[in-house]
Design a protein that fits this description.
Order of helices and strands: HHHHHHHHH
Distance between the termini: 48 Å
Number of strands: 0
Number of domains: 1
Number of helices: 9
Radius of gyration: 22 Å
Strand content: under 5%
Oligomer: single chain
Helix content: over 70%
Length: 251
């Protein structure tokens, strides 16, 4: 019979913590995926029932100086918002993806290139499918500071910027061994995605719930692609950066 003194809970806890550290990226990715999906489902339900209408309108009105045509803030902020929102357009994101694909293919990082391409193309398809499933109207023309077309929910700029920049950020972090570089890569991706989505609300071309849903779905899809790549790495014993997993023999 095992004695109480033979039990060493601190050692068991230490082993659990060490194991968690080894797969911390996977744990975080799963949390983001689950959180993003839950948030997207909840928002979709509320938008479908019209429960977000009052909140969305109040946010839009708070960003106007009395007249719906007049944005709050200085003129330079209006120009900056228009510049930032372009970072989430299909044209600009497509250019980023093509340049990144060219770099990855020149380095013969086939798996990383496939993850990026799958994430970007899949993100566009999911976004368009949901837009035409919900067919939500955009804010009235009097609120819009820039041109916009197609249905409003979810925000394609918010979703696609989250997909592309988070995928690029996680790939860049995967290629580096320095923690500060990893933090910088992923932090920059999150920041740009947040700025793009916020600019869509500020410029009056999307409701706040559109952008929240876009962020949630984009993050969930980006993490889905990342986790699929991680599972493939574990299967073949080779990382996305082309190096072998720990413990694998070099042939």
């Amino acid at each position: 019979m095992q004695r109480l003194s033979d039990l060493r809970p601190h050692r068991s806890l230490a082993r659990l913590i060490e194991a968690a550290k080894g797969e911390l990226g996977v744990v975080l990715a799963l949390l983001v995926l689950a959180g993003g999906m839950l948030a997207a489902l909840r928002l979709s339900e509320e938008v479908g029932e019209g429960d977000t209408r009052v909140f969305d309108l109040r946010v839009l009105q708070a960003l106007r100086a009395g007249d719906p045509h007049i944005l709050i803030g200085p003129k330079w902020l209006h120009i900056a918002a228009a510049d930032i929102t372009a970072l989430g357009s299909v044209t600009v994101l497509g250019l980023f993806v093509l340049l990144a694909l060219g770099l990855l293919l020149s380095l013969r990082r086939w798996s990383a290139a496939l993850v990026l391409l799958t994430g970007a193309v899949g993100g566009v398809e999911i976004s368009q499918a949901l837009k035409y499933a919900f067919l939500r109207e955009r804010p009235d023309l009097v609120y819009r500071a820039v041109e916009a077309s197609n249905p409003s929910y979810p925000s394609g700029h918010a979703m696609l910027s989250a997909v592309v920049f988070l995928t690029l950020g996680t790939l860049a972090a995967r290629f580096s061994t320095r923690r500060r570089v990893k933090v910088m890569a992923i932090g920059s991706a999150v920041l740009v995605s947040l700025l793009v989505g916020t600019s869509r609300i500020y410029l009056g071309v999307h409701w706040t719930s559109d952008v929240l849903a876009g962020w949630s779905m984009g993050a969930a899809w980006a993490m889905t692609c990342w986790l699929a790549a991680w599972a493939w790495e574990r299967r073949v014993g080779r990382r996305l950066d082309g190096s072998l997993e720990r413990g694998e023999p070099i042939s």
